[in-house]
């Protein structure tokens, strides 16, 4: 997880796969945050949750909000973007971590009244995402499709 | 020459796998082998020797003290780990530079994907009673070797392959076969055969994208599973994205649950941090 506070900061996370990239940006204070979480639920490994809380949605997302609030961002002003959560082509659902990663953040946001500004999730593509902290511009690179503005 | 002939031509003129490595792997099958005899063979390949020392000191292998000479390395390192180190040291040369360019992989990414798959295959080998963990590691490391040599052909027909993969609902591998006449898995198997690896390794490389891979022999199942795990994490994933077919239902047969898959992924991230020295071998 990274916070950007300078206008020329660019936060980027590569190759999300089934992981989810969460971008928060407050246009009034011009502060941004980017989280790349890999798994929905930290209960699978309590030790790793302590060592690497940002790896898990249930630990990482609340911590990310706490961090950005410290820099003056307000929930009411914030733009929220959710990207990633792809998966391989498996009818059995064994490899559906992408879907589970999407579901948990949806649940957490619903419970905490967080509105998602835009999302680009699911499918079989691989995504890379970046945020320009000064402008709030979000670029997304999608495998086989090239770069788009989110 | 047709394109198929061109691709076959490449397979036939592939640089050999380091002889030293193959010879040492054979010697290591004998539990009584002497360090002195191993050193005598290994020292003739300076690239392997240099890589071997770097690899030995990778945190991944967990040695308690720094190894500075070949003789030293062979005494300190156990035979099992030595096999992994030798195969890593001798495979890296094939993944240097823009090895995955045609798949829009950045420099070093194809190697990173391969090392990660090897580590995952070894981690999960315990579920597969017929698989030797060293063989699992080797198969993971080399499963995508075909990409290294198919890369330029994929680049030539990039637009066609990508369009087919993303618009037809098929997989990238199916698009490779449709457009180029052969997939990176097919080509990889031909290369493994040319390099004189065992039949089970050749088959695991050939079938690692087969949708029914988990229902096939155990090494094939394990490599397909490890590769899927690494693709899921987006590690070394290029233009092909996650367009790979697999029937995960077969994992039940091995007692592997969805929760297990996530637990291994959580574990992988820490293992990868310890494998940085190995990742840099193909830089």
Structural account:
The complex is a heterodimer of chains A (150) and B (283). Chain A has 150 residues and is α+β, with helices and mostly antiparallel strands. Chain A has a single domain, classed as 2-Layer Sandwich (60s Ribosomal Protein L30, Chain: A), CATH 3.30.1330.200. Chain A has helices at residues 46-51, 57-70, 97-111; strands spanning 2-4, 10-13, 20-26, 31-37, 79-84, 118-121, 127-132, 138-142, 146-149. In chain A, the strands form 2 sheets. A 5-stranded mixed sheet of chain A has the order 1-4-3-5-6. Chain A has a 4-stranded antiparallel sheet with strand order 2-7-8-9, with no helix packed on it. In chain A, a hairpin with a 4-residue loop joins strand 3 (20-26) and strand 4 (31-37). By secondary structure, chain B is mainly α. Chain B has a single domain, classed as Hypothetical protein af1432. Helices cover 60% and strands 0% of the residues of chain B. Chain B is built from 16 helices and no strands. In chain B, helix 2 (19-28) packs antiparallel against helix 6 and helix 12 (184-194) packs antiparallel against helix 13. The longest helix of chain B has 17 residues, at 258-274. Chain B starts with a helix and ends with a helix. The model of chain B has no long low-confidence stretch (mean pLDDT 92).
Number of strands of chain A: 9
Number of spatially distinct domains of chain B: 1
* End-to-end separation of chain B: 34 Å
List unreliable stretches of 5+ residues of chain B: none
Strand-pairing-aware structural class of chain B: mainly alpha
Strand order of the largest sheet of chain A: 1-4-3-5-6
The percent range for strand residues of chain A is 25-35%
* Sheet with most strands of chain B: none
Oligomer: heterodimer
Radius of gyration of chain B equals 18 Å
Count of domain modules of chain A: 1
